[in-house]
């Protein structure tokens, strides 16, 4: 008689614990952006980096970095830093493409 009761209680307890901690679980999986620069631009002394802000048509201000090519070219690289950290933490990656 104890064995079937255990088979019923274990899933109920697991579901109850998941429900209780769901907010913490979801919060840990979400991306929480960091405002401002995480890396000082002075670190890149020999690289010409322009910190610019672009205003979208719906009024949102987006921070970006402009890194002009070392030699004249018609090509452009548009580098997206992804969903972790912020753009200043990915400047080394962008510079490596120059």
Task: Write structural notes for this entry.
With 98 residues, this protein is α+β, with helices and mostly antiparallel strands. It contains 2 helices and 2 strands, in the order H-E-E-H. The protein has a two-stranded antiparallel ribbon. It is elongated and about 80 Å long. The model has no long low-confidence stretch (mean pLDDT 80).
Number of helices: 2
Major sheet size, sense and barrel closure = 2 strands, antiparallel
Our measurement of the CA-to-CA distance between the termini, rounded to an integer number of angstroms, reads 71 Å
Gross morphology is: elongated
Order of helices and strands: HEEH
By secondary-structure content and strand pairing, the structural class works out as: alpha+beta
Name the strands of the widest sheet in spatial order.
1-2
Report the sheet-strand fraction: 5-15%
Helix content: 25-40%
Low-confidence stretches: none
In brief, what are we looking at here?
It contains two helices and two strands, in the order H-E-E-H. The chain has 98 residues and is an alpha+beta fold.
